[in-house]
Amino acid sequence: MTPTIAVTEGASNLSATGATLKGKVDPTGLETSYQFEYGLTTSYGSKAPASPKGIGSGTGYVSVSEPVEGLKAATTYHYRVVATNSEGTYLGKDETFTTWGNWSTQTTPNPTPKTENELIDVSCSSATKCIAAGTDAYRGKGMLQAWNGSEWKIVESSVPGRINALSCASGTECIGVGYQTAPGSDPRAWKMTEQSAKSWWAASTTLATPEGASTVLVRDVSCASSSYCIAVGYYYSNESHPLVEKWNGSSWSLQSAPNPPEGGATDAMLSVSCVSSTSCVAVGKAGGKPVVQSWNGTSWSSAVLAKPSGATTAALEGVSCISATACTAVGNFLESGIPRALAETWNGSSWTQQSIPNPGEGAVDLRNVTCLSSSSCTAVGSYVSQWKVSGEETERKTLVESWNGSSWSIQPSTNPQTFSLLNAVSCTASTACTAVGSSRPKVGEEGRVTLGERYE
After folding, report:
1. How many CA atoms lie within 13 A of 8 on its CB side?
2. CATH number of the domain where residue 94 is located
3. Looking at residue 108, what DSSP letter applies?
4. Are residues 162 and 137 in the same domain?
5. SS (H, E, C) 232-299
6. Tens of pLDDT along 284-340?
7. Which residues contact 338 (CB under 8 A, 6 or more apart)?
8. Which of 157, 240, 287, 288 is disulfide-compatible with 265, CB 3.0–4.6 A?
9. Same domain membership, residue 83 and residue 113
10. Rg over CA atoms, the chain
11. CA 108 from centroid of its chain's CA atoms
């Protein structure tokens, strides 16, 4: 049997124009050299380094890596490691990586007469079709904005209350959840249907209310199809309980979910992701620890995850699943009183904490994540880049983190004003993402405006 001497590993240090190619080579006791081949196809065409580089004649794998530059942005490249010694040439497995695109600020409209607006969630069915839910705090109304591939337009500006989250099963139909009057009272869901390229119609639907509940708050929704959506949150009746509601295409019904093992269900279900009617995952926090609730088509089960080492509390705020055995969740944990980034991944049997970078020493808030595959996830939020001596933040910036299958990296994103943040992101390809949020001139000042950013 031919020995496995050359092994191609995942690329790292991705940027719009470069990457670091990685692999490992076993000389098997013979003087051995290596090169990486890379290019737009499996014909490759380029090599790094330009001449083979020797790694000696030892035994056992030696890690090798080479940086490459001058690449095209938002482009997929093939690469492999090639090892050569007196016994022959050994080819590593072909792998791919995609260079980063660029995040740019989009022009998003703001209702008048007074600007105090925010985009809260977004769902894209293609690179040229997205629907975003937002709020006009001055008028106390929700709004819908649509992206048509070239511009954002307000397509519904009179939705009562606030749409906390939305999920689109198709390019013409979405479900939104939130409240009509105030958080915790008058919970609502909306079935949103596209009437034309310039108009969406949001029809209020009645959520099922738990008997005896004095407070009901719906936080998130995920639709596996137009006739199957799960909305999550909490309700209060003597104590807090997880809230789970199922949409069958025409009406909502309650599902029973267990209280977290350590109690405190108010934030146990902050986000949910469904891949089918038999597989949903919700995440949140309880008892200062990350909590995961899972649906298998018959019942919900609850699990508490360990906090990161040295953390006082931890929470998961967003989750995205690509299958019943592949989910990624993001959030934050407190370390010395400062929130830091947190990422966890599910492989079908257990959750594993991932290493994820933090921009500087300021507070980090990762709020949402979307995954296209096991090697392509994008998470968004914000971080504090400047503090006053008193500890008050004076500048907040948008944060985008990208997972390539082996590591998380911070991507450059735009900041149109001093205080900018991203609430949600939706991707239809590894080089086609839309994120939404808000920005304002200074912390605490009026004049908050909607923010949209496009990655391509």
Report:
1. 20
2. 2.60.40.10
3. -
4. yes
5. EEEEEECEEEEEEEEECCCCEEEECCCCCCCCCCCCCCCEEEEEECCEEEEEEEECCEEEEEEECCCC
6. 999 999 999 999 999 999 999 999 999 999 999 999 999 999 999 999 999 988 999
7. 361, 362, 363
8. 240
9. no
10. 24
11. 21
pTM value? 0.90
In a domain, 1, yes or no: no
Residue that finishes a domain, picked among 98, 120, 140: 98
Domain-located, residue 241: yes
DSSP output for 24-58: EE--TTS-EEEEEEEESSTT--EEEEEEEEEEES-
Q: Which residues contact 312 (CB under 8 A, 6 or more apart)?
A: 288, 333, 334, 335, 337
Give the separation between CA 357 and CA 369, rounded to whole angstroms.
15
* Nearby residues of 182 by Cβ (< 8 Å), 6 or more positions away: none
Q: What is the CATH number of the domain that holds 371?
A: 2.120.10.70
Pairing of β 376-387 and β 393-403: antiparallel
**Same domain (yes/no): 88, 122:** no
pLDDT digit string (tens) for 98-152?
899 999 999 999 988 888 899 999 999 999 999 999 998 888 888 899 999 999 9
> In residues, how long is the chain?
456
Structural domain including 11 reads 6-98
Q: Let me know whether 310 and 336 are in one domain.
A: yes
| CA end-to-end distance (rounded Å), the chain | 45
State how far the Cα of 142 lies from the Cα of 124, in Å rounded to an integer: 19
Residue that has been written with the tokens 């109304």 in this structure: 141
> Domains in the chain: how many in total?
2
52-71: b (≥16 Cβ within 10 Å) or e: eeebeeeeeebebbbebeeb
List, in order, residues 6 or more apart from 201 with CB less than 8 Å away: 156, 192, 193, 195
The angle formed by the CA atoms of residues 339, 374 and 290, to the nearest 5 degrees, is 30
CB 63 within 8 A of CB 22: yes
Structure tokens at 447: 């004049």
Match 């719009």 to its residue by tokens: 16
d(CA 435, CA 445) in angstroms, rounded, equals 23
Supply 222's token pair.
């995920």
- Residues 51, 191, single domain; the answer is no
Cis peptide before 27, with omega less than 30 degrees from 0? no
Pair 322, 376 in one domain: yes
Q: Are residues 148 and 217 in contact, defined by beta-carbon separation less than 8 angstroms? A: no
Strands (E), 127-172: 129-136, 141-147, 152-160, 162-168
